[in-house]
TrEMBL record:
One Pfam family linked to the record: RRM_1
Highest taxon in the source lineage: Eukaryota
Keyword Ribosomal protein carried by entry: no
Family matches, as InterPro entries: Nucleotide-bd_a/b_plait_sf, RBD_domain_sf, RBM19_RRM5, RBM19_RRM6, RRM_dom
Annotated GO MF terms: RNA binding
Domain named RRM: residues: 39-122, 143-223
Key words, A-Z: RNA-binding
Chain residue ranges for the region called Disordered: 17-37
Stated name of the protein: RRM domain-containing protein
Amino acid sequence: EHQCSSYFLYQRMYCQEEDEKESKNKDEDEEELEPEPNTVLYVKNLNFDTTEDSIKKHFSKCGRVASVTVARKKDPARPGQLLSMGYGFVRLTRQTEVDNALKRLQHSTLDGHQLELKRSNRTVQDNAAVAKKKNNVDKQTGTKILVRNIPFQATQREIMQLFETFGEIKALRLPRKMVGTGPHRGFAFVEFHTKHDAKRAMQALCQSTHLFGRRLVLEWAQL
């Protein structure tokens, strides 16, 4: 009887270890999954109160969501706050998932609004462009990132808030047309304290990050 109990205990421990290994391997596979090109959807007619999290949950029915961006603008009534512009972008992982979303979620309802979906032409990239961008991410030159195509209404504080979630920022420079008072020139330099944090920011934001409806273009600053 004692031997029988020991056998079942061993079997239980073995199965538990195998389940943990399988779960770990699955998590690692998901982390390594790179989005295919042409996997960005333009989502129109969003409720102004709809959040990125609720959009992600809505689209997760059709596949793995790589990123969600809601276009926002400054709130004139509340300085420092942003308002949704009623549209956004959802990046899925596979083209088949995009096809599935267009079939299943076209005119679906989220937070009381009927969504309108279409492929995003402004963020569609061919294989060569994706490969080039991946090479740019891999070819890290330091801790400083050059950010282009910044909308002119964006402030230094708003850019800081976008990047500081990835680590402590050492410096952020937003060059202006006229020293001190003029409008900025549409690009910025963001420098982190560590290469690790800089790479995290680059990997997360270089694919399809929009600010006030414009897609930011990121590259490593030349030393």
